[in-house]
Design a protein that fits this description.
The complex is a heterodimer of chains A (470) and B (112).
Chain A: H1 10-13, H2 34-52, E1 57-58, E2 61-62, E3 64-67, E4 72-75, E5 78-80, H3 85-106, H4 109-114, H5 116-132, H6 135-143, H7 148-174, H8 179-187, H9 193-213, H10 215-221, H11 223-227, E6 238-241, H12 243-246, H13 258-261, H14 271-275, H15 295-307, E7 314-317, H16 319-322, H17 332-354, E8 358-364, E9 371-372, E10 378-388, E11 394-401, E12 407-410, E13 415-417, E14 422-431, E15 441-450, E16 457-465
Antiparallel strand pairs in A: 1-2, 3-4, 4-5, 6-7, 8-10, 9-10, 10-14, 11-13, 11-15, 12-14, 15-16
Chain B: H1 31-56, H2 59-66, H3 74-100
Helix pairs in contact in B: 1-3
The chains are: A alpha+beta (470), B mainly alpha (112).
């Protein structure tokens, strides 16, 4: 699929004021069918996750809480700290790759079934349908002058939309602040200024994007819509009109053999155009506006059923299949994506499994390189920055490895840190200069270990500076 | 995006082949669209910048080093940071949009 825009009519394009005609509101016609059922299930699944997840608690703790004020993310019992930013980056890379992978396999299924823009727009369309009626009725209502019925219908739609948007904004903030506490404070008008701001902001964004912008977000704002064509090849699943079978299109009575009249299977009922949420005609071929929602397939299938023609005049297919060639799922592109994805997921999972919930950073004292103690040892001073990244308090002790006789002293000897606490601990390492023949310095490894039997360890190697020329 | 009067909506799409929405043109340089073209990419960039910046820097540390007498919560810190990134990126987009447009010459009756 190319992201090439429509060819503009040269006559109109030359007049600077009319380069863009007023946006015509698209009234997608409602349609039932296989793909619309899948979309409905996805709406309930995804929005269900969004609206329910902040309320779920595991063992008294919120299952998902991005606790920004405390600088920690709780996700299903795991706690992440800013030091774990690597995992977030990895997750984003995996998500992007997975999107590319799915795109090369199945085209824009993300757009049609899972994109928040599509999913929320769908819900807003349902509300429009409940209050304003079906497509023809909605169009008539839009054309009609303002009267009591129009005010009532449009007004109740706005009420539904606004209430839903406000709740959406509130839920969004509930991902960052425990939602039950948030609700209590919201009920007594004690939300903080920023909590209020962000819930209104997100609520407004939902209202504006799902209520008014709709398909225009996909057409003009979405970066993915512009570059997804790069992931397409001849084996990618696309929604396509079978031109060979359908053309020449034209109206006919039921039961008439189209071949006798010299017609194809397309009865030119325009239903596929009416149901399209982005307002395109799929019979013109693949267009970058198409979000692969399958509404036109369902519409056309229902018509084919009525006409007693076989289904699939508009269908999910591949370019190769349309030309009668075999389509392959396994091909270099998909193999590369699979290998990359597997490698990244394995790396991330291994990293997570082996993640030690303690972090030690060693800063060397920059003022003095080394000091000689009374009993002839060389001493270096350090600052240890120790972070307890686990969810419970722990007591830690230190040990050092290096040349024979190396010793460590910290102030205090054992450190107790609360969950998430970071503390800077002064430390000294001593070494008998005769134990090493290295000039200038030697590497030593400091190990921190939990002393309460929880078996948490972390280590860090640092430079021990010795006198030059001994 | 609905500031201009819409064309009267027709009951059924015209039977013309291939023109579902004859009104649509690529890249409409209308004013509302230009405002969106400044704000929207800036919003995305600001989100990314906020994430990267604050994952490394605690707004509390920033506050202690700059305005220790002010009461600024972390939430406020993140929010102000995001809005600042947004403003800066938005300004940059606005200048890009301004420069990308052809210079407007007041030629009157073809003076040049």
């Amino acid at each position: 699929m190319s992201a090439r825009p429509h060819k503009a009519d040269p006559g109109e394009a030359s007049a600077p004021d009319s380069m863009y005609a007023a946006h015509e509101k698209i009234h997608p016609r409602e349609i039932k069918g296989r793909y619309q059922t899948v979309r409905k299930i996805m709406v309930f699944l995804l929005l269900g996750l969004f609206y329910v997840l902040p309320w779920v608690r595991i063992g008294g703790e919120p299952a998902v809480l991005f606790d920004l004020p405390a600088r920690q993310f709780h996700i299903l019992g795991l706690t992440f700290w800013p030091q774990d930013f690597f995992y977030l980056t990895l997750l984003l890379v995996i998500c992007a790759l997975a999107l590319f992978f799915v795109t090369s396999l199945a085209g824009r299924v993300w757009c049609g079934y899972a994109c928040p823009q599509t999913v929320w727009t769908e819900v807003f369309l349902w509300m429009e349908h409940w209050t304003e009626g079906k497509r023809a009725k909605r169009m008539k209502l839009d054309r009609s002058p303002w009267n009591v019925e129009k005010i009532l219908r449009k007004g109740s739609k706005q009420v539904l939309w606004i209430v839903f948007s406000l709740w959406t904004g509130f839920t969004f903030v509930g991902f960052f602040s425990p939602i039950d506490d948030l609700l209590m404070r919201a009920a007594s008008f004690q939300l903080g200024p920023w909590e209020t701001f962000w819930s209104l902001f997100y609520g407004f964004a939902t209202y504006f994007n799902a209520g008014f912008m709709r398909e225009q977000v996909c057409l003009y704002m979405c970066p993915y819509a512009r570059f997804q064509g790069a992931m397409f090849d001849r084996e990618t699943l696309i929604i396509s009109y079978d031109e060979e079978r359908g053309e020449p299109r034209g109206g006919r009575k039921r039961g008439v053999d189209p071949r006798e009249k010299g017609l194809g299977d397309c009865i030119d009922c325009n239903l596929c155009v009416q149901v399209c949420p982005t307002g395109i005609d799929i019979r013109d071929g693949l267009q970058y506006e198409c979000i692969a929602c399958g509404a036109c397939i369902d519409a056309c299938d229902s018509v084919m059923d009525k006409m007693d023609y076989p289904r699939g005049l508009v269908r999910y297919t591949t370019e190769n299949a349309l030309e009668g060639r075999p389509s392959r799922v396994i091909r270099p592109r998909t193999i590369i994506y699979t290998v990359l994805l597997l490698a990244l997921v394995t790396a991330g999972a291994t990293g997570l499994a082996m993640r030690e919930p303690v972090r030690l950073d060693i800063l060397t004292d920059r003022n003095t390189l080394y000091r000689e103690t009374g009993d002839g040892l060389i001493e270096n001073s350090y600052s240890f920055k120790l972070t307890n990244m686990s969810g419970e308090p722990h007591t830690y002790g230190f040990s050092v490895e290096g040349p024979a006789g190396v010793r460590i002293e910290t102030q205090p000897r054992e450190v107790r840190l609360a969950a998430g606490e970071t503390r800077t601990i002064p430390a000294r390492i001593q070494l008998d200069p005769d134990a090493t023949d290295k000039i200038g310095g030697v590497d030593v490894t400091v190990t921190v270990e939990s002393l309460d039997g929880t078996d948490i360890t972390g280590s860090e190697t640092t430079r021990f500076r010795t006198p030059v020329g001994r | 995006m609905r500031s201009q009067p819409a064309d009267p909506v027709e009951g059924t799409p015209k039977p013309q082949p291939s023109v579902a929405h004859p009104a649509r043109r690529p890249y409409p340089p209308r004013r509302a669209w230009l405002v969106g073209a400044c704000l929207w990419p800036a919003f995305l960039s600001a989100g990314l910048a906020t994430m990267i910046f604050f994952s490394g820097i605690d707004p509390e540390t920033l506050r202690l080093q700059t305005l220790p007498d002010w009461e600024i919560s972390r939430t406020a810190g993140y929010s102000i940071g995001f809005l600042m990134f947004w403003a800066v990126a938005g300004f940059s987009s606005a200048v890009s949009v301004l420069l990308a447009r052809a210079p407007c010459r007041d030629t009157g009756k073809g003076s040049s």
